[in-house]
Structure formats: structure tokens, C-alpha cells
Write a structure and sequence with these properties.
This protein is an alpha/beta fold. The protein is built from 18 helices and 14 strands. Bound molecules: nicotinamide-adenine-dinucleotide and uridine-5'-diphosphate-glucose.
Length: 480
């Protein structure tokens, strides 16, 4: 029986391995982690992450050919294929701080693999890593190998949160990079055989190691660039009276451009886009390509600009002050159908409003108070470490109140900000919300989910990203 072990039971390791176990009943899959609380949760009825369809997959396989364990060394030593899906945060100190990927967790996993291995292994990079990481890992493994053969493969993950199970069941492609030697090709074939249990072979792309590593960073950079492009247009739409949804629709009808990833928003969030682009920027700089680095940096600058612009509209339209005013925040997760808050634009928007002394009442159907308080107290990039190693802030922010209901959040509020596109926000009773708010009542829709005409008819002053502005907003321009 082939044995697979995955180091890292996170958003990638957990769902990916659960699907491999489901689709390959003859393979034994162990997912291991240094975080005891994460493994306990994976072995319980309350899984550590919220992802539609995940519960069913885990329930079908757990205890049969899918195991979650903290006994990292045992499972690694027994495995034929070891996936490594640990954190690769942005460095906060030292060389490359604020840009380069911190490979501390990766390196410690590689050293442990070398220490405990007694048989040949295929080691698979599942984490997103800088180009040429495989070479570094190879060096660590071979210098400590005691005669064991390690083949390194790059198999980046392209799943998106909220649709992870769907994406894993039916991926656009699976990418496997390896050495162009007979041993490397044999390792590629072994991993291809695993995916071929359910992925059509023409969707399994094989390449060299560096192409696979770089393709992951490139794909995320291209996706994020589309969002920054449409968000840049949204500012111009507001200035000219064009409607960004109409512009995006017209542009996306060009089959060369396509309709996806053209939704203007308060900004992209999530654990990957910003981190991976910063990583790409650093690699460009290290390779003497400052112009290329600056090109990609601009994608992040526009994203930051979009969040700042949103906060400025809120403050300027409310007579240039939100001090002591209750503002309801609907949605805190970085997108719908996930409880993940990593790099969510809600953090920057909330911090901006708190900087102007607002009182925030926050509601998200999947994010609890503890998480929100942690996020608002945490320093940039500190989130991307194993939970038990994250710096904790002892105090919670008093201006922030977290509630479990959109109506409670909006009661007596001066303004409402929609920051995540949860479906339930489309069908709220906005008349009831309006009746219970202070007047004039404002809605700032950072996800373009509400029907502006209907809300205006109720009496709201409405700001929607990239849409023609209300006269009220035109009269109160934001000047930073
Ligand atoms: N989240 C996504 O949607 C996504 C998609 C594609 C790729 N990625 C990449 O995959 C990697 C993992 O991302 P994630 O979102 O799953 O992160 P995560 O923080 O959810 O999970 C990482 C896990 O690794 C564990 N870990 C760290 N060091 C360890 C070690 N030495 N031994 C055992 N366990 C260890 C941590 O405790 C944590 O549970 C990152 O490189 C990320 O960029 C993420
Ligand atoms: O038209 C759009 C599409 C997305 N977003 C925002 O962009 C962010 C990222 O969304 P999405 O890409 O759907 O989610 P992620 O889970 O971050 O997935 C991205 O990052 C993963 C980690 O690398 C990759 O595996 C995926 O392929 C890639 O889509 C979210 O804040 C979205 O709200 C927009 O603002 N407008």
C-alpha cells in the first residue's frame, strides 16, 4: 500500500489530502501538524476550517484511509510520498523583510524529513515557495541523507477558498514539476498516478521544477492584477459617471479577456495574493529586474489605494468625522463561504475607521469575536505562523463590538459597510434596518451586492464601488 504523509494540516493540507484519500481508497493518507489544537479539531466534529463539502469528505474517509496526527516523525518515516504544506510567511525582519518568503517552517520540515527517513522518498512542495526553493531543499536533504534517495517535486496548489472541494474534485489543471533525470521523471509519474485516479490526464501538466514553482506565483499575480485593473477603473468610473459593472461586462465579453475576476471590490484579500506578489517582487529584485518588480508592486499599491479610498468616502460623506459614531460592519471574512480572515480588506477598513475614532459593530456569519479582536490587534504579516506561535495581544479593542446578527449590528448605526459578499446580505430587510438607524443613514457597499435603487428609494445615501455617485457624495469629496 502506498503511504502518503502531508506535513501541515491547514487550509491546503487538510482539504487536499482528504480528497486524495477519498479518490484513492487504496492509499493511506496521514496529515500531521505541530499544532495540537488543529489536529484535535480535525479529529472532532467541528473541523478547524469552514469549507463547503469538506465535512462530508472527511467523514467518509477519516479512520479508514485518512488520519490526522501530531506524531509527525512516525508518519513521515513510514511514507513513500511526503507533501509539505506548511506556512511560508512574508519575512518581517532581516534580509528581504516585508517581501521575501520566510522559509523557516519549510527548512525545519526538510531537516526533520532527512533525520527520520529510513527509506527513499518523494518530497512534494505543496506550499507556495520562491523559485529555486526545490534546490535549497534538495541540498538540505542530500547533505543529511545517510544514503537515502530523495526526489523533490513541485506540485503547487491552485484551490480557492470557499470552493476548495469543488476545485480539488475538478481542477483546471494539476501541475507537477520535477528534475529532468530518469529518477525525477519516475517521481513525476508516481505523483501523476495519484492524481490520475480522478483528474483527466490531459489536465495534468508536467514541467521542470522552476517552471512549476514560478507558475504558481505567476498565476496569482495575473489574477490579482485583474482585480487591481478593474478596481483602478472603478475610481475612474466614479469620477466620470460610468458604471464599473457595465464596463467590466463589456470588457469581459471579449473572449480574449473573459468575464471572470472582474468584480470591482473594496480590495482583494486572502492569505495568498499579497504575499505571493511580494515574494515575486523580491525575486525580481534579486535577479536584477527592478522594472519588472515595480510593475507587480503596482498591483498591491492599487489594492491599498482601493481600501484607503473606501474609508475616505465613509469619513468624508459623514461630515468628515466618524468619531463616536456607530458604524456597522457586515462581513469580515476575505470572501464569502469561508471563515478565513487572513489579509481580509475588512482589517484595513476597520483600522482606518478606528483611526478616525468610530465605534464598530461587526457581524460575520463565520467569524467569531476572538478572531476579529486578534486580527485587529495583530501586526501586518504576523498571522501567517502556526496558531500557537502567533504573537498574542493581551488587550481587546474596546471600540469594537462583535454581534451575531446583522440587525443587531445595524441598530442605531450611522452607517453600514458591506465588506464580504455573503449571500444573506442581499436579502436583508433593509427597510427594517433603515428604520432602526440614525439619520441620514448611509450604506457603503464594498462588494456591490445591494440594489442601490431600492435602497435609495427607502431613503439611504448609498455608495457602491465604481457606481455613479449620489449627489450627497459628490458634494462631500474625499481629500486625504
Ligand atoms: N490557503 C490557500 O488557499 C492556499 C492555496 C494554495 C497555496 N497555499 C500555500 O500553501 C501553504 C500552506 O497554506 P495554508 O493556507 O494551508 O496555511 P495554514 O496556516 O492553514 O497551514 C499550515 C500548517 O502548517 C503547520 N506547520 C508549520 N510548520 C510545521 C512543521 N514544521 N511541522 C508540522 N506542521 C507545521 C501549521 O501548524 C499549520 O497548521 C502556504 O505556502 C500557502 O501560501 C495556500
Ligand atoms: O473579481 C474578483 C475576484 C476576487 N476578488 C477578491 O480577491 C480575493 C481572493 O479571492 P479568490 O482568488 O477567489 O480566493 P483565494 O482563496 O485567495 O484563492 C486565490 O489564492 C489561492 C492561494 O494561492 C490560489 O490557489 C487560488 O487559485 C487563487 O484564486 C478575495 O478577497 C475576493 O473577494 C475580487 O475582489 N474580485
Amino acid at each position: 500500500m502506498v503511504k502518503i504523509c502531508c506535513i501541515g494540516a491547514g487550509y491546503v493540507g487538510g482539504p487536499t489530502m482528504a480528497v486524495i484519500a477519498l479518490k484513492c481508497p487504496e492509499i493511506e493518507v496521514a496529515v500531521v501538524d505541530i499544532s495540537v489544537s488543529r489536529i484535535t479539531a480535525w479529529n472532532s466534529d467541528a473541523l478547524p476550517i469552514y469549507e463547503p463539502g469538506l465535512d462530508e469528505v472527511v467523514k467518509k474517509c477519516r479512520g479508514k484511509n485518512l488520519f490526522f496526527s501530531t506524531d509527525v516523525e512516525k508518519h513521515v518515516s513510514e511514507a513513500d510520498i511526503v507533501f509539505v504544506s506548511v506556512n511560508t510567511p512574508t519575512k518581517t525582519q532581516g534580509l528581504g523583510a516585508g517581501k521575501a518568503a520566510d522559509l523557516t517552517y519549510w527548512e525545519s520540515a526538510a531537516r526533520m524529513i532527512a533525520d527520520v527517513s529510513k527509506s527513499n522518498k518523494i518530497v512534494v512542495e505543496k506550499s507556495t515557495v520562491p523559485v529555486k526553493t526545490a534546490e535549497a531543499i534538495e541540498k538540505i536533504l542530500t547533505h543529511n541523507s545517510k544514503g537515502i534517495d530523495f526526489q523533490i517535486l513541485s506540485n503547487p496548489e491552485f484551490l480557492a477558498e470557499g470552493t476548495a472541494i469543488q476545485d480539488l474534485f475538478n481542477p483546471d489543471r494539476v501541475l507537477i514539476g520535477g528534475r529532468e533525470t530518469p529518477e525525477g521523471q519516475k517521481a513525476i509519474a508516481a505523483l501523476r498516478d495519484v492524481y490520475a485516479h480522478w483528474v483527466p490526464v490531459d489536465r495534468i501538466i508536467c514541467s521542470n521544477l522552476w517552471s512549476a514553482e514560478l507558475s504558481k506565483l505567476a498565476a496569482n499575480a495575473f489574477l490579482a492584477q485583474r482585480i487591481s485593473s478593474v478596481n483602478a477603473m472603478s475610481a475612474l468610473c466614479e469620477a466620470t459617471g460610468a458604471d464599473v459593472s457595465q464596463v467590466a461586462h463589456a470588457v469581459g465579453k471579449d473572449t480574449r479577456i473573459g468575464p471572470k475576476f472582474l468584480n470591482a471590490s473594496v480590495g482583494f484579500g486572502g492569505s495568498c495574493f499579497q504575499k505571493d506578489i511580494l515574494n515575486l517582487v523580491y525575486i525580481c529584485e534579486c535577479n536584477g529586474l527592478p522594472e519588472v518588480a515595480n510593475y507587480w508592486k503596482q498591483v498591491i499599491k492599487i489594492n491599498d489605494y482601493q481600501k484607503t479610498r473606501f474609508v475616505n468616502w465613509i469619513v468624508s460623506s459623514m461630515f468628515n468625522t466618524v468619531s463616536g459614531k456607530k458604524i456597522a460592519i457586515l462581513g469580515f471574512a476575505f470572501k464569502k463561504d469561508t471563515g478565513d480572515t487572513r489579509e481580509t480588506p475588512a482589517i484595513d477598513v476597520c483600522k482606518g475607521l478606528l483611526g478616525d475614532k468610530a465605534l464598530l459593530s461587526i457581524y460575520d456569519p463565520q467569524v467569531n469575536e476572538e478572531q476579529i479582536q486578534r486580527d485587529l490587534a495583530m501586526k501586518k504579516f504576523d498571522w501567517d505562523h502556526p496558531v500557537h506561535l502567533q504573537p498574542m495581544s493581551p488587550t481587546s479593542i474596546k471600540q469594537v463590538n462583535v454581534v451575531w446578527d446583522a440587525y443587531a449590528a445595524t441598530k442605531d448605526a450611522h452607517g453600514v459597510c458591506i465588506l464580504t459578499e455573503w449571500d444573506e446580505f442581499k436579502t436583508l430587510d433593509y427597510q427594517r434596518i433603515y428604520d432602526n438607524m440614525r439619520k441620514p443613514a448611509f450604506i457603503f457597499d464594498g462588494r456591490n451586492v445591494v440594489d442601490e435603487a431600492k435602497l435609495r428609494a427607502i431613503g439611504f445615501i448609498v455608495y457602491s464601488i465604481g457606481k455613479p455617485l449620489d449627489q450627497w457624495l459628490k458634494d462631500m469629496p474625499a481629500v486625504a
